[in-house]
Design a protein that fits this description.
50% helix; 236 residues; mainly alpha
């Protein structure tokens, strides 16, 4: 089903070409719109125009294009070629207007039109006929299958390596050296050995503490002076 935006796309393509001093023919407009659909499908897996593209005559063509061009705000001029063949040229009635067009779509159209709009007609026809994936898989009269369009190649991540000046490198090296020297002077703490002697000493100290804590509660018990002196000395 034709997308309502297709008219805007065609007008934009024509005006973009006019700004490059190119007056496109109907064939050029049709092939460039087809390329826009191919590239749009490559990224978004759908065509933007909604046209029914078939393998007709000189490659991909959509019969809806001819009546569509007559409805748009562009001038159509009919000319006769040297072999008495009719051709139609198109000029926009104003500068290109991208105000209602998504930025990504505008960039895609600009890239396609700028690459192929200035090519001669035979180069353009050869490319769409032989180099685009839907045409490579089709026979004359077939509806083109865009599912054959390959996705874009993956973007390789670029790792940027910082480049330090000699002065900065020397300053960082000196700071690193100072940190290493400071670290070497730090004394590492080691816990004491928890051996049998340690636990015996702790047991003795706990026994003495228990005796001293009981003294206030001895009440009427008489303690000799020597005993008080002895206990006092042990406490110290």
């Amino acid at each position: 089903m034709m997308n309502p935006i297709v008219g805007t796309l065609v007008e934009y393509i024509v005006r973009r070409l006019n700004e490059q001093e190119i007056t496109p023919t109907r064939t050029q407009v049709a092939k460039l719109l087809y390329l826009v659909d191919v590239e749009y499908f490559r990224y978004y897996r759908k065509i933007i125009s909604g046209l029914q593209w078939r393998f007709l005559h000189y490659g991909p063509y959509a019969v809806e294009i001819e009546p569509l061009l007559k409805k748009l705000d562009i001038d159509e001029q009919e000319i006769t070629t040297g072999k008495q063949h009719k051709a139609f040229l198109y000029k926009g009635k104003g500068p290109e207007d991208a105000s209602t067009m998504p930025t990504a779509l505008r960039i895609l159209i600009n890239t396609t039109v700028d690459e192929w709009g200035g090519q001669n007609l035979y180069s353009l026809l050869d490319y769409v006929y032989y180099e685009t994936e839907p045409m490579a898989q089709a026979s004359r009269g077939d509806l083109l299958d865009f599912s054959f369009v390959l996705p874009p190649p993956p973007v390789e991540a670029v790792t940027h390596t910082a480049v330090l000046s000699e002065a900065t490198h020397a300053e960082l090296a000196q700071k690193y050296k100072s940190i290493r020297e400071l670290a070497s002077r730090i004394v590492t703490w080691h816990p004491p050995p928890y051996d049998e002697v340690y636990f015996q000493a702790m047991s003795t100290m706990n026994a003495e503490d228990n005796v001293l804590q009981c003294l206030p509660f001895l009440g009427g018990v008489t303690i000799q002076k020597e005993a008080e002196i002895s206990l006092s000395n042990q406490q110290e």
